[in-house]
Amino acid sequence: MSAPAQAPKTIDQLQASLRLQDKSKAEALIKAHPVREAFRKYMNRCLSAGSTKKQLPDWKEVDAYLLEKRMPRTGRVAGKVLEDIVAEDCVNKPYDLLPHASMFALRIMTFLKSEEGEAYDIRLEDHAVRRHGDIQFDRCKRIMKLLGFLVNQNLEMKRNRELEKDREIQGIMKENNWI
Description:
By secondary structure, the chain is mostly helical. It has helices at residues 11-17, 23-31, 33-48, 59-70, 82-92, 97-113, 132-175. The radius of gyration is 19 Å and the shape is globular. The chain starts with 10 loop residues before the first helix and ends with a helix.
């Protein structure tokens, strides 16, 4: 799965895009247990779904999806928690990244609203907020940048492992005069 081109690739870019005070805050965020757990669940689902070549959904798509799922249009939604509805979609649509990215976003939103996560939820300046929805849009945008960064890091780690494995194989082949 590929992250959007605008997704941060370095910890410094992540820190700037999330408006965190310094690099150590960005490092602490990606090491926080709720973030690691949300990403682990996301990757397990998406890698098992064989969607490694698909593009991550845009934050606007995730926000629109979550808004649509919040609206009680049908009887099946009544009495259900939003996370349960999205989890059901994740099971029913294993090859669609949108429900999985939305579930990641929900988990991170829950974390950011917690006492531990408050420190990482740097909101827009008051003068930049035109309406209450701007805060939600901004949070969703930052969460998708975090997901893009984590995907980039994961892909880079995989590439490095594959390169190392190739080097080991070439070394063995040279030792045994196969080349």
